[in-house]
Structures are given as structure tokens and as C-alpha cells.
Design brief:
By secondary structure, the protein is mainly α. Helices cover 85% and strands 0% of the residues.
């Protein structure tokens, strides 16, 4: 079980970490709220999570591209 947790934290999208840093809460607490909200609302936070992951990936791509242009 620990291997699965480490794998997901290493290769995850980083959405919970991003949200946690923005609002000043631990990422584990944000993950827990995502899980609770997913069960309560029949899965709609999954779409919010994937949408946020998509935008974080786009922003990361632009930051890397900008750094390559400078160097």
C-alpha cells in the first residue's frame, strides 16, 4: 500500500499540492476533501480535479518553454 501511495504522489498531477499551497492547508487535507466531495456529489469534483490538472500542465509547459527561450 505504501508503494502505491508513493507512486501516486510522485506521478500525480499536483493539483492537491497546488490548492493546498494557495489556501495554506496541507495537501493531505485537500485530498481528503476531494474524496469526501466525490462521494457526496456523485463524482463531480473529479471533473474539477481533471480540469485543474489540465491547466496546471499547460502553465507548466509555458513556464518550461519560457525558460528554454531565456537560456
Amino acid at each position: 500500500m505504501e508503494n502505491i501511495k508513493n507512486f501516486l504522489e510522485k506521478y500525480g498531477f499536483g493539483v492537491c499540492n497546488f490548492i493546498g499551497e494557495k489556501i495554506g492547508v496541507r495537501a493531505s487535507r485537500v485530498r481528503l476533501y476531494f474524496i469526501y466531495l466525490t462521494f457526496v456529489t456523485m463524482g463531480s469534483p473529479i471533473f474539477i480535479y481533471l480540469f485543474t490538472a489540465f491547466w496546471l500542465n499547460i502553465f507548466k509547459y509555458f513556464r518550461e518553454d519560457k525558460n528554454e527561450m531565456i537560456a
